[in-house]
């Protein structure tokens, strides 16, 4: 098929779509309002001089691109058009006169945008009326979107490359020996042996309060200072609040145990997740519509602490942190949002119970292999696009 994606060419998710479908032999085109280069994909830039993170007033220019979008689509002659984000790109295409397209909603377009004003809400409703088919990465987000449309959504979760994200990709053991401990102490009980190890926790997310980075730092401080756990914190990612978080780590007195890794590749992300004793992903907003990072950590056999956000709980096998774990099978433990004490309490439980961590890791890996293997997820999307293409040709 000749596939035309309309969405930001610098989006990691769109790059992943292009990589997967070009590998499958499809001809890929992207129409984007922001520059970007994607291997084996032709990017058609409509340069509006508007930053993707700019103001809504600036983004009003999107609504006047209908003619350009339509002419590009007519020139490309795609078998199928798939649009990403209901607002911005979705609104522009809805006004363009292009028909027979698929629309994927992503998160903030459903959770945040319509709450800004009645006009924003009306624009979202209009955008959701025009596509032939609506896709959502999670049932939680589809349920949220049902406030603005009665049309059904097809659930197409993000997939994870389980050949890349796997337990044995770790460059070494996740715990680092404390000086003075010898191999002869290997016969100690699990709980006692753990006390001689660095307990590695961390996350791979953008440095923003949306992803609970502040709460992770505070929890690490509580874990070390109140519970005397030899914790090591590793945080990968970049973002607007990076310097603020570094200063917070200093103020909390944990800068000596905190490592800031910056932006890292997918390969390095897999190694980081695999080397952690516990992954911590305490997002604070519902717009975390699907827990990609949590699924990546699960695929690496790492137990996960998540916040009680619908998309995170849907993508994992989770139980509440204050429940009785006896006899339950789960891969993640959920805590209330913006609750560092709950995170620290849960980390302490997991620190003291290595066997529980192991069971959670095994459950997480099975969950991902069953539901979220990337090949299975993209084959599903490919079949959907093929069906829409055939219907458009009737």
Q: How large is the count of helical segments?
A: 16
Largest sheet: 7 strands, parallel
What is the share of helical residues? Answer: 40-55%
Query: What average pLDDT do the residues reach?
Result: 89
Low-confidence runs of at least 5 consecutive residues: 172-189, 191-196
Radius of gyration: 22 Å
Side-by-side strand order of the widest sheet = 3-2-1-4-5-6-7
Percent range for β-strand residues: 15-25%
Question: What would you note in describing this structure?
Answer:
By secondary structure, this protein is of the alpha/beta class. It contains 16 helices and 14 strands. A seven-stranded parallel β-sheet has the order 3-2-1-4-5-6-7, sandwiched between helices. Strands 10-9-8-11-12-14-13 form a seven-stranded parallel β-sheet, with helices on both faces. α9 (213-225) packs across α14 (340-352) and α12 (292-299) crosses α15. The longest helix has 19 residues, at 374-392. It is globular, with a radius of gyration of 22 Å.
Outline of this structure?
By secondary structure, this protein is of the alpha/beta class.
SSE blueprint:
Layout: E1 2-6, H1 12-23, E2 27-32, E3 41-45, H2 56-59, H3 66-76, E4 80-84, H4 89-94, E5 102-105, H5 108-111, H6 118-129, E6 133-136, H7 139-145, E7 154-155, H8 190-194, E8 199-204, H9 213-225, E9 231-236, H10 242-251, E10 258-262, H11 266-275, E11 278-281, H12 292-299, E12 304-307, H13 310-315, E13 318-320, E14 332-335, H14 340-352, H15 354-371, H16 374-392
Parallel strand pairs: 1-2, 1-4, 2-3, 4-5, 5-6, 6-7, 8-9, 8-11, 9-10, 11-12, 12-14, 13-14
